[in-house]
Design a protein that fits this description.
- The structure is a single chain.
- Strands 1-2 form a two-stranded parallel sheet.
- Helix 3 packs across helix 4 and helix 4 packs antiparallel against helix 5.
- The mean pLDDT is 89.
- It has one domain.
- The longest helix is centred in the middle third of the chain and has 24 residues.
- It has six helices and two strands.
- The chain has 117 residues and is mainly alpha-helical.
- Helices cover 79% and strands 5% of the residues.
Length: 117
């Protein structure tokens, strides 16, 4: 969790960073409740988080990292499944993140590229 906090703090000084952090804090209780009620979704969250924590640490240390295309697909699919259980406000925020992933602007802004191969 320390690595995630460090990443948040690095990006918080920008308007987009502040907006994303605000989304996180606004929605964290609802996301936690959904994960508590849906064990399958919670297990997926834990797997995705665990598999990508080295990339988060690298991003914090070096300002950039790469993730696999399969990780991106897992993250995308997880967000869609989370969105299906979300209330309106959380659903709209997830939609914003999904559009950022799908249109290709979010990952580069974060300093993340997709591994080729």
């Amino acid at each position: 969790m320390q690595s995630l906090r460090e990443l948040r703090n690095q990006k918080l000084h920008t308007a987009m960073g502040a907006m994303l952090a605000g989304m996180y804090y606004k929605n964290m209780n609802e996301v936690g409740a959904i994960l508590k009620d849906d064990n399958g979704l919670n297990v997926r969250f834990m797997l995705i988080t665990g598999e990508n924590m080295p990339a988060v640490r690298e991003l914090v240390r070096h300002g950039g990292t790469a993730i696999s295309s399969s990780s991106l697909i897992q993250i995308h699919d997880f967000l869609i499944d989370l969105q299906s259980q979300a209330g309106l406000k959380l659903s709209m925020d997830i939609e914003f993140i999904l559009r950022g992933l799908e249109s290709g602007w979010l990952l580069p802004w974060l300093g993340i590229t997709i591994k080729q191969g």
